[in-house]
Amino acid sequence: MPSADIIAAALLNGLLTGGVYALVALGLTLIYGVLHIVNFAHGSLLMLAMFGAWLLVDRVGLDPYAALPVMTAIAFLAGWALYAGVIGRISGGDDRRILLATLGVAVVLDNLALVIFTGDSRTIDTPYAFAVVEAGPLLISVPKLISFVVALALAAAMWAFMTRTDLGRAIRAVAREPDGARLVGISPKRIFALSYGIGIGCLGAAACLLLPTFYVSPQVGNVFVLIAFTIVVLGGMGSFPGAVAGGLIIGVTESLGGLFLGESLGPIGIPLIFIAVLLLRPSGLFRTAR
Amino acid sequence: MTMRISRRQAIVAGSASLAMPAVARAQSASIKLGLIHPVTGPLAFSGSQCRLGGQMAIADVNGGGGIKAMGGAKIEALLGDAQLKPELAASLVDQFAEAGAAGFTGCFSSSLGLAATQAAAKYNLPFSIDSGVADSLTARGLANTFRLFPPATECVDGAVLELDGVNKAAGSPVKSAILVHENSEFGTNTATALKEKLPGIGIKVLDVMPHATPTRDFSNIVLRIKEQKPDLVIISNYINEYVLLIRTLVQQRVPLVAMFSVLGGGFSLKFAKEQPEIAENVMDFNHWYNPRKPESLAFRKRVEDAGNTFSWEVLFGYYAVRLLTDTFEKAGTADKAKVLPALAASTYFPDMLPYAPTKFVNGQNQGAHASGLQIQKGEIRVIWPEQFADAKPVFHQPKL
Fold it and tell me: Which ipTM was obtained for this model?
């Protein structure tokens, strides 16, 4: 049995990791909530955002946190352009075609990254990479702490944007009743592109928060995308509070599972919780909160 | 004459080669070799490195006039991407055999190699393994399979011998160790063998910690290591997890005498350059060139001058092909009936590697050995055995 200090450290680490998981899932849940499609390109776009962040750090010389607003803006524009120029045009309004279009985009992006960046993994070295905050016997990683705080702040800002602004209300209107929204002068097409852009913008922010503690490679999206899908289903597809709560729950489950069951068997905790939620509350924890 | 080939060109050429109709390829009088590697998916980097080496060897042979005993016949590469799917590796062997391949090299991963060598055995076509350390690759009695490079057992035995020597020379500061390994065949077999052999050199194994690939976070493993206070952590895993684990060990200030790995996937020049502070003094028992041979350094420069990263996989990809082409030259034919006995009797020596003379027994070269390595001042140095070493071991963990 691990000591109380170790359990506390694992719990804290799970929460910190869960914050970034939540940010990755936030974009996915927004895209599902508005477009009603599962964005299969999410992992590939996260990978591309991480390479973008890496280029800003390694080639331009920006600090990863200073690169965050730049990368978020670039990712938003790229997401908006991708939907307006490719996915939306291919789909012709048919959800099944959107699904296939995102899958096609994922395949193209993965292979493009492989040709441009090769299969190699890259990491960055920052002056604060190994900085820790000492809390009694616990050593809390400073980059993870920053990522957690920024991820939750961005999630709160997103929630405020969706509930307090006219544009946010327009997005929610299109999500619930596109025809009704059209009748009051909202263009669902523009809202779809905007929502896709915001969803991918979240990935731009997540990329900068992940970079100080993680590696980037053409396969890195796969490492996070399944977790993000699990979080979205767990929290309730389309729910912001659900994505945040789901991210934290999954982070803690993963961490404690690894501690008590070992890193090979530990990940079993995530599918177990997932199955339990599907059995007991199939619409997810926060389905009504959209 | 040598040709410069970048990994990017290699990938593009591979795609083009697969897209080209088999009929078009069959019209050439050249000798076809199937190069099967994972060039997409999680092992894309290592697979691409092996392919790059293979293509450099083919460029050298063709540039030097082809197989002279066969009237200057050129070598043609049939490039296959096995991803990380053994069934795909086997299927590529079938496709290339049908296209007239005279032999194969591959597949970086042992699991891919097991499937591909078995598929090639159906056609009795020679298979020169370019990496993949599982003993079973050459221990199944397949007459078509040859490995110029050392198997896992030899690497573990060598690692234990080196660790014993380095530890004793430093006054035996290491008395306990924790083994961390990835949980597939490579990591599990390595850790199992180490657990059995380490007590024999006075090192008590406190714990064995497997992990999956990929693993996103090593905090739990490191917390458990910290609680048990080992002198040494021994790692056997792949590239990304290797770096993440060492970063977490340093960040959580785990007081170790040293960090050691056996066939550490992330122990590379790139790791040494990207993470210089934490990479310094990390030790590994792995494949590397003989630094005392000028040809080795010239080969590395050739790879780097072409814009590629140098790693041991390039050398292995290179020599796996050269073993086959040397055999074609000596047998005067690419006919498998003559090539297989010629391979079994081959004494082809990979002169840039720190090996004893080549002798194949059941397809395994008995002269192949890995080396004790250490990152010192951003460079990989050979520290063991003495006859190939270009630096002395430094036995303590980097402090930040």
Answer: 0.84
pTM: 0.85
On whether the CB atoms of residues A84 and A50 are closer than 8 A, the answer is no
User: Given pLDDT bands bounded at 50, 70 and 90, which one contains residue B357?
Assistant: very high
Residues B48 and B161 in one domain: no
**Res. A22: pLDDT tops 60:** yes
Chain-centre distance for alpha carbon A123:
20
Structure tokens at A116: 């441009």
Pairing of strands B283-286, B371-376: antiparallel
- The torsion region of residue B177 among left (phi > 0), alpha (psi -120 to 50) and beta comes to beta
Angle at B361 between CA B355 and CA B366, to 5 degrees: 20
The alpha-helical segments, DSSP class H, found in chain A are 4-35, 42-58, 67-82, 88-91, 95-117, 142-164, 166-176, 178-183, 188-210, 220-235, 240-265, 269-280
Of B44, B217, B278, the CB nearest to A119: B44
Give which of A121, A124, A142, A217 to mutate to test B binding, by max B Cβ within 10 Å: A121
Pair B104, B323: CB distance under 8 Å: no
Shared domain check, B247 and B376: yes
* B140 shares a domain with B13: yes
Total number of domains constituting chain B: 2
Q: B375 and B337 in one domain? A: no
Q: How far apart are CA A273 and CA B400, in angstroms?
A: 40
Q: What is the pLDDT of residues B61-117, one digit of tens each?
A: 999 999 999 999 999 999 999 998 999 999 999 999 999 999 999 999 888 999 999
Which of A263, A264, A270 is the best substitution to test chain B (most B C-beta atoms within 10 A)?
Answer: A263
Structural domain of residue B295, as residue ranges?
7-150+291-365
Q: Which two tokens stand for residue B264?
A: 């550490």
Q: Look at residue B16 and tell me if it is in a domain.
A: yes
Does residue B396 fall inside a structural domain? Answer: no
B277 touches chain A (CB under 8 A): yes
Q: What are phi and psi of A217, to 5 degrees?
A: -155, 165
Q: Which two tokens stand for residue B108?
A: 């970086």
Q: How far apart are CA A259 and CA A193, in angstroms?
A: 42
* Token pair for B195: 């657990």
pLDDT in tens, A142-200: 999 999 999 999 999 999 999 999 999 999 999 989 899 999 999 999 999 999 999 99
Contact partners, residue B57, CB within 8 Å, separation at least 6: B317, B318, B319, B320, B321, B322, B325
Partner-chain residue, chosen from B8, B217, B223, that has the shortest CB–CB distance to A17: B217
CA distance A285 to A263: 27
